Amino acid sequence: MSWFAAVLSSWAYMYKVSVPFHMVFKSSILLVNMMIGAIVLRKRYSFGQIGSVVMVSIGVMISTFAALPAKPADDNVEGQIDFWQWILGVAILALSLVFTGYARLLL
Question: Distance between CA atoms of 96 and 2, rounded to whole angstroms?
Fold first, then answer.
């Protein structure tokens, strides 16, 4: 499972995802681990832990929107392809985070 998550994470680079964005986005594993812990393991977290994870997640969302490529004009077909490739890369990266969190749960 963790091998598949690593492959997905590396695969995101093929879809116009930059290295700095990749590193920041991977820090949202905190939220994934907390959600899996709460849902699957029935863990309970303190208000301070939840607040810290929410603050990190807000920072990741801000960086995601800051890294978003400019939406191209309707007549710029290549720019539209780049935009949708980036969106696909972010989706692959998010899927990689879910698999990483699940793999850590199994350990």
Answer: 9
pLDDT in tens, 51-70: 999 998 898 888 877 877 66
Q: Of residues 2 and 24, which shows the higher confidence score?
A: 24
Are 14 and 89 within 8 A, CB to CB? Answer: yes
H or E segment at 35? Answer: helix 29-39
Segments making up each domain of the chain, as ranges: 2-106
Per-residue model confidence as pLDDT tens digits over 75-87: 666 666 677 888 8
* pTM summary value: 0.74
Q: Please give the C-alpha separations between residue 59 and each of 15, 26, 77, 78, in angstroms, as whole numbers.
A: 22, 12, 31, 30
First to last CA, the chain: 11
104 burial level (CB within 10 Å; 0-12, 13-18, 19+):
middle
Q: Output Rg (C-alpha) for the chain, integer angstroms.
A: 16
* Local structure of 28: helix, strand or coil: coil
